[in-house]
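Tokens for chain A. Residues wanted.
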């Protein structure tokens, strides 16, 4: 089972969209008195209704449920499914209103963890969490320090419509799937030394980064569809979107993934070009990057992006594009 734990993301910025009859639904603040909000099912109020509202606001949840539905059809006895756990610092007395809100918006969340102000990290380990998403950067760093794949969610003001039937997840490479080894060379010695280092180490595998395990979990589910002859019709699709150059530094990344036994459906080597336009074309449900420059660029193009606060890039200006080493 692939467990995804999500934190309730600033309610003053993020609210449930309008309902199908045009009446504004209650925000998380109004229904649960929460101090936080949650994964990408909410956004600033938009002038959208009905089916359109459902697709924009709940796309990732509907995609996850679509994957689970197909897995149940192919493997009726299997429990290897996506499992979403809502984790909040709020006290249990909020639970009734929170559950009512979840049910009102037809969200597929059955597992809750209300810690009453205590740190949720121990519970994440007990849940065997594959991915933890939160709007609180400090909690994300705490989770990463404990070896849990985690990222800080950032929601664009206007979101790109995404698929309800295929889950699409995009990853940066260095300091996300891979370690920040190559990024350190670039930061310390510049671009020429980075290229030299990659050429000399072409056959040396990169060490793993914080989200390798989550990609492995996705790959495990993908292989269940492949085993039933549904490779071309798989409801999970993964993307590598990296500022590395294919000719000079991309081969090491691909060799590392192959040696790990992991597959990426599509790989985009941008050689330092902006990632936002490509992400707008891909339309992923979520994109992971370790640099805020790229997270902000993705959000500007309507992509839900998640910052992975890991590696050497965190010590540099968050708005600086560290470029090709990524």
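Reply:
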């Amino acid at each position: 089972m692939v467990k995804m734990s999500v934190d309730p993301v600033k309610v003053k910025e993020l609210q449930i969209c309008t309902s199908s009859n045009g009446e504004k639904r209650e925000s998380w603040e109004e229904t649960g008195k929460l101090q936080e909000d949650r994964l990408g099912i909410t956004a600033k109020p938009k002038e959208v209704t009905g089916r359109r509202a459902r697709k924009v606001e709940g796309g990732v949840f509907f995609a996850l449920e679509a994957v689970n539905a197909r897995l149940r059809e192919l493997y009726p006895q299997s429990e290897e499914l996506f499992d979403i756990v809502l984790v909040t610092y709020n006290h249990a007395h909020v639970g009734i209103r929170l559950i009512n809100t979840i049910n009102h918006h037809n969200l597929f969340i059955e597992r809750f963890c209300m810690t009453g102000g205590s740190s949720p990290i121990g519970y994440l380990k007990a849940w065997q969490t594959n991915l933890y998403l939160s709007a609180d950067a400090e909690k994300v760093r705490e989770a990463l320090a404990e070896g849990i794949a985690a990222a800080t969610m950032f929601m664009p003001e206007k979101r790109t419509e995404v698929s309800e039937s295929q889950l699409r997840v995009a990853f940066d490479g260095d300091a996300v799937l891979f370690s920040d080894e190559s990024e350190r060379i670039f930061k310390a010695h510049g671009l020429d030394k980075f290229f030299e280092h990659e050429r000399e180490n072409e056959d040396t595998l990169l060490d793993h980064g914080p989200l390798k395990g989550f990609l492995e979990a996705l790959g495990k589910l993908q292989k269940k569809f492949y085993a039933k002859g549904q490779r071309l019709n798989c409801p999970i699709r993964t993307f590598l979107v990296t500022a590395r150059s294919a000719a000079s530094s991309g081969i090491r990344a691909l060799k590392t993934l192959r040696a790990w036994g992991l597959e990426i459906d599509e790989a985009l080597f941008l050689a330092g070009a902006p990632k936002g336009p490509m992400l707008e074309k891909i339309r992923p449900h979520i994109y992971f990057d370790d640099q805020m420059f790229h997270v902000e660029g993705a959000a500007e193009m309507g992509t839900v992006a998640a910052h992975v606060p890991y590696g050497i890039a965190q010590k540099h200006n968050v708005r600086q594009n560290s470029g090709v080493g990524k």
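DSSP finds eleven helices and ten strands in the chain. The first strand starts at residue 2 and ends at 6.
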